[in-house]
Amino acid sequence: MLASILIAAVGAALVSAHTVLTYPGWRGDNLITNDTFPYGMQWMYPCGGMNTTTNRTYWPVSGGAIAFQPGWFQGHATAQIFINLGFGTDGPNGGPPNMSNPMIPQFGITGPSKNPYSGTICLPQVPLPVNASVKAGDNATIQVVELAVHGAALYSVSD
Ligand SMILES: *[C@@H]1O[C@H](CO)[C@@H](O)[C@H](O)[C@H]1NC(C)=O
Ligand SMILES: *[C@@H]1O[C@H](CO)[C@@H](O)[C@H](O)[C@H]1NC(C)=O
Ligand SMILES: *[C@@H]1O[C@H](CO)[C@@H](O)[C@H](O)[C@H]1NC(C)=O
Ligand SMILES: *[C@@H]1O[C@H](CO)[C@@H](O)[C@H](O)[C@H]1NC(C)=O
Ligand SMILES: *[C@@H]1O[C@H](CO)[C@@H](O)[C@H](O)[C@H]1NC(C)=O
Ligand SMILES: *[C@@H]1O[C@H](CO)[C@@H](O)[C@H](O)[C@H]1NC(C)=O
Predict the structure, then answer these.
(1) The Cα angle at residue 134 between residues 133 and 135, in degrees rounded to 5
(2) Rounded to an integer, what distance in angstroms lies between the CA atom of residue 28 and that of residue 35?
(3) What range does the record give for the signal peptide (predicted)?
(4) Of 17, 74, 80, 147, which is most buried by a Cβ count within 10 Å?
(5) Global confidence as pTM
(6) Average pLDDT estimate for 62-78
(7) Which pLDDT belongs to residue 109?
(8) Distance of CA 49 to CAs 28, 39, 45, 121, Å?
(9) Which ligand 2 atom minimizes the distance to the CA of 32?
(10) Distance 139 CA to ligand 4 centre (A)
């Protein structure tokens, strides 16, 4: 009885530990824990367990806004955020070959508490990675990484 309550509590903590990418639209809901993703999809490098989408979002070639809700985590009042861009469709899954191009320097966030919260971070003008050379119509993928206090990271992406 006690053991099953503890397991349920641990499961709830894992399930609530997530980011939601609100703009540009993400590949889809990866707030899922099941037999294929027993630790939860969003911990899977590099794209949170999601395949490349076919419903791509237009995003300015001069850079633009990125918004996300970082607070679907429990037990972590602080985290480190990274935002990267991957170019093209030559990688596994028809996505980028890598996500190794930072768009902005990493930054830390402090939540209101260790509990989940619904606040959104909006960065109104995120530039392309340094020395990026793109033209209108190119495919690319934005990756938001949330590094938790214990060193594991959550991944959400937008194509
Ligand atoms: C793409 O489709 C998925 C599945 O219907 C949806 O969850 C997601 O929000 C869509 N993304 C965009 C950018 O429209
Ligand atoms: C787990 O969820 C993912 C995403 O919806 C899905 O692709 C996969 O088939 C699911 N696995 C099981 C065993 O239901
Ligand atoms: C990704 O695509 C593979 C191959 O088509 C498929 O087996 C897998 O279920 C897909 N994953 C998700 C999360 O939809
Ligand atoms: C971009 O990706 C779409 C599928 O999402 C594909 O149809 C199109 O050919 C790609 N464009 C380029 C320039 O690779
Ligand atoms: C990452 O991918 C780009 C193509 O988008 C390629 O030019 C570059 O060499 C790759 N970098 C690494 C470290 O693999
Ligand atoms: C950008 O390009 C300049 C000029 O080629 C080079 O000196 C610099 O190292 C590049 N920066 C990065 C981050 O690749």
Answers:
(1) 140
(2) 19
(3) 1-17
(4) 17
(5) 0.88
(6) 88
(7) 94
(8) 10, 11, 7, 23
(9) 2
(10) 6
Torsion angles phi and psi, residue 149, rounded to 5: -60, -25
The three-state secondary structure class of 87 is: strand
- Longest Cα separation, the chain: 60
Domains in the chain, CATH or no CATH each: 2-158 (2.70.50)
Q: Is residue 57 within 6 Å of ligand 1 at its C-beta? A: yes
pLDDT digits (tens, 9 = 90+) for 97-128: 999 999 999 999 998 888 888 899 999 999 99
List, chain by chain if needed, residues with CB within 6 Å of any ligand 3 atom.
Answer: 49-51
Cα 119–chain centre separation: 15
The first and second tokens of residue 153, run together, are 């990271």
Please indicate whether residue 114, judged by its CB atom, sits closer than 6 Å to ligand 4: no
**Alpha carbon nearest to ligand 1 atom 3, residue:** 28
Contact of 149 with 18, CB cutoff 8 Å? no
Binning pLDDT at 50, 70 and 90, where does residue 8 land? Answer: very low
Beta bridge partners of 153: 147
Burial 20-57 (b: 16+ CB within 10 A, else e): bbbbbebbeebbbeeeeeeebbbbbebbbbbebbeeee
| Ligand 2 contact via 31 beta carbon (within 6 Å) | no
